[in-house]
Amino acid sequence: MASRRTLSLLNNLKKDAKFFSTSSKDLAKVAVMGASGGIGQPLSLLLKQSPLVTDLSLYDIVHTVGVAADLSHMDTQSKVRGFVGPDQLKSSLEGAEIVVIPAGVPRKPGMTRDDLFNTNASIVRDLARACAEVCPKALIGIISNPVNSTVPIASEVFAEAGAYDPNRIFGVTSLDVVRSNAFIAELKGLDPQKVNCPVIGGHAGITILPVISQCTPSVSFEPDQLKALTERIQDAGTEVVKAKAGAGSATLSMAYAGARFTFSLIRALNGEQGIIECAYVRSDVTEAKYFSTPLLLGPNGIEKNLGLGKLTDFEQSLVAPAVEELKKNIKKGEEFVKKH
C-alpha cells in the first residue's frame, strides 16, 4: 500500500507538463537535515525521484556521503550531494530554497514526543542557527519532534539572529492529515487519494484535532465512532511505535507526508496558485502563539492563514484543551532558547 500511494503522489505531479521543465526557475534546491536517519533516507529518496527538485543537499552527522552516493545512481535529473558533520553544516545550506529538518532521535515504546525534547531541542536549535545565517529566506519545514516545541525554538533562534519571518517557518503536521485521509477512506470504502481531511491544533496527542466535518468528500459518523476515530488519529504515532516493538517510530509514512509537504512548498514557490496545506505555524487564530490550520501557500511561504473554519460542537470542545496543552509546549521551547 505504501509503495502504491508513493507512486500515485509522484504520478500526480508528473501529470502537469511544467514539472518536466528544465528551466531552473521552475525547480528548487532542497536541503534535508538529518538525511541519514529513519525518516531522512526515505524522504531523500522521494525527493530525488521528483522532477520538482533540481538540487538535493543531504546533511547529517554520519553516513551522508554514502546515502548521497547511493541516491546519485538513480536516473533522475536532480543532483545530490552529501555533507557530514558540523564543519560542513553551513556548506550544506548554501543556496537552499527549502530546508526540511527530520533530524533527531526516534520514539521508542513508552516514550512520548515530549521525552525527546532535550536531545532534539538542541539539534533543532543548532540547525536553525545555521539556517538563519546561511539561508535566512529559505522555507523551513520542521519534522523533528516534539514539533509543538521545536517550531517555537527555531522561531526564537531566527528572531535572535534578526532573520525571523513567521511566514517561512512550518511545523510539518501533514502526517496527521495523511493518517486521517487513510483511516476515513478505510471506514467509508473510499479512495484515500481523493479524501482530504484538514487537521488543526498541534502534533501530539490531544493537540491533534481532525476536522472531520470539513472533510472532502463529506462524510459522517455516529458519535461513538467519531470519538473513536478522532482518538485513533491522535494516538496513531503510538500505534506505530508499539507495532515496531522498539525498532523505531513512524518513519516511512512520515517521509511520505514530508515529501508531500515539500512538493507543495515547491509548487507554491514556483507560483502555482491554490496550494493549501495544514501546518503548525505562528498564529493569532487562537490564544496559542502557534497553531496548525489550513494555509494558502505562496512564493514567500504563508500567503493566507485560512483559520479554523466552521467547527461542530464536538470539534469545538476539543480546541480549549488543545490550546492549553500547546501553551505549555510552546513555553517549554521558548524557555529552552533563553536558557541555552
UniProtKB/TrEMBL annotation:
<feature type="binding site">
    <location>
        <position position="60"/>
    </location>
    <ligand>
        <name>NAD(+)</name>
    </ligand>
</feature>
<dbReference type="GO" id="GO:0019752">
    <property type="term" value="P:carboxylic acid metabolic process"/>
</dbReference>
<feature type="binding site">
    <location>
        <position position="145"/>
    </location>
    <ligand>
        <name>substrate</name>
    </ligand>
</feature>
<dbReference type="Pfam" id="PF00056">
    <property type="entry name" value="Ldh_1_N"/>
</dbReference>
<keyword id="KW-0560">Oxidoreductase</keyword>
<feature type="binding site">
    <location>
        <begin position="34"/>
        <end position="40"/>
    </location>
    <ligand>
        <name>NAD(+)</name>
    </ligand>
</feature>
<dbReference type="GO" id="GO:0030060">
    <property type="term" value="F:L-malate dehydrogenase (NAD+) activity"/>
</dbReference>
<keyword id="KW-0816">Tricarboxylic acid cycle</keyword>
<dbReference type="InterPro" id="IPR001236">
    <property type="entry name" value="Lactate/malate_DH_N"/>
</dbReference>
<dbReference type="InterPro" id="IPR036291">
    <property type="entry name" value="NAD(P)-bd_dom_sf"/>
</dbReference>
<dbReference type="GO" id="GO:0006099">
    <property type="term" value="P:tricarboxylic acid cycle"/>
</dbReference>
<feature type="binding site">
    <location>
        <begin position="143"/>
        <end position="145"/>
    </location>
    <ligand>
        <name>NAD(+)</name>
    </ligand>
</feature>
<keyword id="KW-0520">NAD</keyword>
<feature type="binding site">
    <location>
        <position position="179"/>
    </location>
    <ligand>
        <name>substrate</name>
    </ligand>
</feature>
<feature type="domain" description="Lactate/malate dehydrogenase N-terminal">
    <location>
        <begin position="29"/>
        <end position="171"/>
    </location>
</feature>
<comment type="similarity">
    <text>Belongs to the LDH/MDH superfamily. MDH type 1 family.</text>
</comment>
<comment type="subunit">
    <text>Homodimer.</text>
</comment>
<dbReference type="InterPro" id="IPR022383">
    <property type="entry name" value="Lactate/malate_DH_C"/>
</dbReference>
<dbReference type="InterPro" id="IPR001557">
    <property type="entry name" value="L-lactate/malate_DH"/>
</dbReference>
<dbReference type="GO" id="GO:0005739">
    <property type="term" value="C:mitochondrion"/>
</dbReference>
<feature type="active site" description="Proton acceptor">
    <location>
        <position position="203"/>
    </location>
</feature>
<dbReference type="InterPro" id="IPR010097">
    <property type="entry name" value="Malate_DH_type1"/>
</dbReference>
<dbReference type="Pfam" id="PF02866">
    <property type="entry name" value="Ldh_1_C"/>
</dbReference>
<protein>
    <recommendedName>
        <fullName>Malate dehydrogenase, mitochondrial</fullName>
        <ecNumber>1.1.1.37</ecNumber>
    </recommendedName>
</protein>
<feature type="binding site">
    <location>
        <position position="254"/>
    </location>
    <ligand>
        <name>NAD(+)</name>
    </ligand>
</feature>
<dbReference type="InterPro" id="IPR015955">
    <property type="entry name" value="Lactate_DH/Glyco_Ohase_4_C"/>
</dbReference>
<feature type="binding site">
    <location>
        <position position="107"/>
    </location>
    <ligand>
        <name>substrate</name>
    </ligand>
</feature>
<feature type="binding site">
    <location>
        <position position="113"/>
    </location>
    <ligand>
        <name>substrate</name>
    </ligand>
</feature>
<feature type="domain" description="Lactate/malate dehydrogenase C-terminal">
    <location>
        <begin position="173"/>
        <end position="337"/>
    </location>
</feature>
<feature type="binding site">
    <location>
        <position position="120"/>
    </location>
    <ligand>
        <name>NAD(+)</name>
    </ligand>
</feature>
